[in-house]
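User: I want to check something. If I give you two sequences, will you return the structure for each one separately, not as a complex?

Assistant: Yes, each is folded on its own. Here is the first sequence with its structure:
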Amino acid sequence: MRHEWSELNNQQKGTYGEYLAKMEFTMYGLSVFTAEVDDRGIDFVARNKGGMHFDVQVKTITGKNYTYISESKFHNIDVVCLVVLKEHSEPTIYLLKASDWSKDKSGLLNYKHYPNSKEPEYGINFTKKRVEHIQKYKFDNVISSLKEGEVNGPLGSAG
């Protein structure tokens, strides 16, 4: 049966999420360039027709309610593409601009330094309580602003 995400291991789910994200960016007319080495937290670079490019980090989650990007990698990215794989359902994709972390007051997005962690992290709390807050970040709602180059904060570079 299709969409049995539990049949995939974590690496397969992550790879699926990255490929899906690349295809979605491509379907909206952006050019996609894959990084050969993922040592800075950048999974791929997307470029709109105006020449503006965006460094993208893809996070794929299934049963988890929380995912994060370490501070040292977060400062290298412009966009976080969150791919949510729910058993027996089509994937749902969200786009979060790096500048959204400073604007969010709902608790969906946070910046914390946990006592046992080496460095602070930028987190996404994908819980039932916060589902309504993430709807504005659905891929189809945000991609047009990247496509047109309408960005807020430090997002995007002319190239």
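And separately, the second sequence with its own structure:
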Amino acid sequence: MKIILSLLILFSGFSYGQAQQGAYPHVLVYKTRKNYSKNVPILLTDDKKHIISYPDPSDIKSREQYPTPTRLKRGYLLDNRGIGLNVAFIKLTYAQYAELSQAPTLDALLSMIIDKNPLTELIDCGSRYDMKDPVNEINAKIKKGELRKDYKIIK
């Protein structure tokens, strides 16, 4: 298996480091219309009619602390859960959701949505692999007014 992976990497023109880097999640920074930092995010289809991703309560319960976003300077938030452009927030907080014995049905989750368009800004700051200290590095960019200039603006 390792030989096949090495050959694929070799013939595709990528280095091993690039292959490793691609496996890391991206650092997403965002702002919302209201404070949803304690509410559980789910991901919707582009038309916002169907759910494509949601956490299991055990995903949230198994952590030492809930994966709420990290507060940054000037009202920005650093994603720790896995949001995206089509994120929606439900009425349940991380604490309430973690207490559930199983995930709600898709219909139940749809009925719990409190905002289907919560984002006012969404910025992709690149791979976590490239950052030693995302919070301090991003806060420095925010302070200098370089966040939107140096990173990919999604919204």
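Because they were folded independently, the notes below concern the second chain alone. Confidence is low (pLDDT under 50) at residues 1-21. The longest strand covers residues 119-127.
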